[in-house]
Amino acid sequence: MAAPQDVHVRICNQEIVKFDLEVKALIQDIRDCSGPLSALTELNTKVKEKFQQLRHRIQDLEQLAKEQDKESEKQLLLQEVENHKKQMLSNQASWRKANLTCKIAIDNLEKAELLQGGDLLRQRKTAKESLAQTSSTITESLMGISRMMAQQVQQSEEAMQSLVTSSRTILDANEEFKSMSGTIQLGRKLITKYNRRELTDKLLIFLALALFLATVLYIVKKRLFPFL
User: Boundaries of each Sec20 C-terminal domain copy (predicted)?
Assistant: First the structure.
């Protein structure tokens, strides 16, 4: 079973390796950084934090080495501490070089942007003029569409008014048809009544004629044949 002190040594070494790798990764990010300066400042802040953590863990490992009972193990750990310190110094040198390279790249980029400033201003002016022309064209198109919509609305209103007038005309004609229908029905009733009355008059005339003829025959009979 490993002694607690050995466990602390192993954990301390693992953390030192982890912080060392993180420092190297951040230094590479600084080399690849193309600006702005705020991004470089943020990366440097992170590097400082990792160096601080790394330094503390190296100091912890050095203290653990001094606490070793065996001289051989003590010397071995102290040698590891020296190696970690050298590696940290190498990382610091690489960090300074990466910063210098990054600052030179940012300065060159800013100079290039200043040289291209005139072209950028002309491009912006041209873009603004083009945008203004496009906006004017769009405005005219929208006004034309608005006028067309107003005409369509007016035509729709006229069509609606025409439909209302036609509806009223149809309703008036319907009322007239109803009135004419009532008149026709009344005429039909009068004609039927007249036909019935005519038939009655014909029957009465026929009966009167028959009575007249019977009376004439009776008178003739009495005069010509009194004995009958």
Answer: 134-224
Q: How many domains does the chain have?
A: 1
Q: Which tens digit of pLDDT belongs to each residue from 143-157?
A: 666 576 657 657 766
CA distance 124 to 126: 5
- Average pLDDT value for residue range 177-200: 74
pTM of the complete model beyond 0.70: no
Distance separating alpha carbons of residues 222 and 228, to the nearest angstrom: 8
Q: Which residues contact 2 (CB under 8 A, 6 or more apart)?
A: 10
Stated length of the chain: 228
Residue 24: which residues within 8 A CB-CB, separation 6 or more?
91, 94
CATH of the domain at 105: 1.20.58.400
Distance, CA of 169 to chain centre: 49
What is the rounded CA–CA span in Å between residue 59 and residue 66?
Answer: 11
What percent of the chain is predicted at pLDDT more than 70?
77
Alpha helices per DSSP H over 67-116: 71-115
Max CA distance (Å), the chain: 198
Rounded to the nearest angstrom, the gap between the alpha carbon of residue 120 and the centroid of all alpha carbons in its chain is 34
Q: Which long-range contacts (CB under 8 A, 24 or more apart) does 170-178 make?
A: none
Domain that holds residue 95: 1-116
Q: Is residue 169 part of a domain?
A: no
